[in-house]
Design brief:
disordered N terminus, 35% strand, alpha+beta, 7-stranded mixed sheet, 6 helices, 336 residues, 6-stranded antiparallel sheet
Length: 336
Amino acid sequence: MTDETAPNELLPMPAGAIELPVDTFADTLRALAVAALRQALVERRLALPLGPEAAAEDDGRLLSLNRFGLQLATAGISADQIAIDPAHWAEVATAPQLLLAALVDEENDVVCFPGVLTGQEFVAAAEGATTEGAQLLLPTDAFAGGLDRLLTLVQLLEPAALPRLAFRSGTTTLQRQVVVVSDWLTGQLDGALAQLFGAQWQPVTQGAFFSVGIAAPDANALALVAIPLGLDGQQLVCGQAADHCIERFVLQMIATGSSASSPDGLVLRLTAAMAGDLLPDGLTLLASQGSHEQRQSAVADTGIELVFHGGQTLIDVRLSYPGSTDLVLPPLQLPG
């Protein structure tokens, strides 16, 4: 029987490729790429925070590198195209700031990073991209600069210097989608809130509020949507990723009003997941409706709260924590 030639004897090692240790435990292209990125940071002695630690290998998650939102797209080592999941680019609130390409040789644990695109560069490249199902296909050579460019960008720039952009292409528009608060009264939950943030609709009952550490529901509460949150190291995470965190908390969004069919107010309440626990100091809840902005930061608090009353102007909600990428929700709308 003729011995097969090993893959690394057929293909030369790409320039700048990272060879992982033989005992690396990773069973997906993304897991190998994340391991290679971590190894590169160690080898270059760069103390840049990379997270979320508990869910970095999850294909549906964005990475955070030194507070920059980073999407990781992977393909085989010899691929000439890379498939990009455009779901994150549907809204400004959830769009990454950088898109990193990784070519992976699973058999030999070798990873090559051809380069990175900023949000602006991705949107420009995506305009003429071909599609495969729901995926966008970009040529590998559209990514330039290798890992060096990525590390230069995240070290020399502040996160605010790279805007989050939604992707628009012809009649197909992936953009900010407004969440209509009145839909919550009938149990309808916007897809972005549920899929990207792990939001859950809950009945407005005494038990629902007790379960997240609130003594009693508001007298005029009409609907309750809760987002589980946590700290993975210094990084804010939400949804299932929060289940693995030691420090966990919940954002309650409570539609209020005197009419059972039309909410005219919104309460945003951030509380520890366990009754009596304190929120992490420095955790900040910010929300704005037009020129009206509210902000509260936790300092030895079990909960913080913001309240809005009516108005057709959209309500923008953001959570921040020192050292973390901000968590930005889709805009919320109350009936006028």
